[in-house]
Amino acid sequence: MLSATDNELLTRVGVGTPMGKLMRQYWIPFLFSWEIETDGSPERVRLLGEDLVAFRDSSGKPGLIAENCPHRGASLYLGRNEQGGLACIYHGWKFDVSGHCVDMPSEPASSNFHEKVADLSYPLIEKAGVVWAYMGAEKVPPPLPGLEWLDVPEDQIIASKRVQYSNWVQAMEGDLDQSHLSFTHRFLQPKADSIRKGVDVIRQNDTHPHFEVLETDYGVLVGCSREAGDGQKYWRLTQQMMPFHTITPPYGDNPTRNWRAWVPIDDHNVFVIGLTFHPTRGFTDEEINRLKGSANVWTISPENRAPVTSAPFGRWRPALTIENDFHQDREFQKTGLYSGIAEFWAQDAAPQLTMGVICDRTKEHLGTSDAGIIGVRRRLLAAARKFSNDGVTPPEISHPEVYQVRADALFLNPDESWVDKTTQRRKVNAAVNPDSPK
Fold this sequence. Notes:
The protein is an alpha+beta fold. The chain is 18% helix and 23% strand.
């Protein structure tokens, strides 16, 4: 369990909070490039409790500025995006992507008042179809983290997002918890057509895996082993990369790989932006259709999407909620799926939301299967304290190369070291894509 003080420190990300200050030192992925068009409609954005608006100017450059006009507070989301800036519909004050006021038609032409007014703005970088924001105070932002997929051609990437109505920590912790796979996502009878039917059997037979946790240059490496039969152990190695990135292990021969980021919208809401990518080849049309249409951790199936709205991340909200019990089917729970919830992401979201919007970790009773969660909490809390109290910036921010890592899964003999045997397999190598059990 955590103390009430530590739980507050871990979960609160608003302006001035220790975790919020820490988060703002990292680049934050929040938008797909296609979501904003040149001189097109703006997008409402909410990050770390700040209300913002994103747009793409006449030259194609993206911008992220405060939503409320500094004149009298009207929403710039309603503004006109034209001729190099976003103009407030109330009095025509126009702001460019850097927040500079470039036109103030309600003032005399001889006035230089516009030179004294600016809107809050944040630097952006676009890469691999994703727009990243830097919300920290450094005049020269750090480099982007060296995540493998950032150097993969876009035809080798399928990406999506999903909003969840809970604090970011309990959402991210689902990725660190290999134990729940024996329960939450389990079919009562392993499916014969499953792409991981052998692994499904292992999880059903061994429901109390062994965990080992290593602190790394970039975050935390969580090793989890189960008895696999024939004297072997099945190891799965999950990567947590500061502050909110996760990679879970792959399945099968020449496998696809994944990445996701659990980005706080505010203290009470989070969105997960994630993708499936293949490091060595593009996707076929059949694979694209399947990946875009299937629910997973970060993708909502088409039939379970809520109607699109202009709210922040309004096209990425689910129709399944705690109010409708995520369409849990009690008969299906008896005969088919342990959770009784058909939508994959909802199998995780349902228990996470029932913990409360912000889980009260003072009441927890953690066991051996929670070792990865404990390790990541410690890393985050220590980093937030060091930055808030002593101004010590986490070193990984300035060393993007430490993010060049992969998750892994493999069979090992009991006397083999999972750390040593996976040293090379966990390094990004564009020419190599090791097989994993299925």
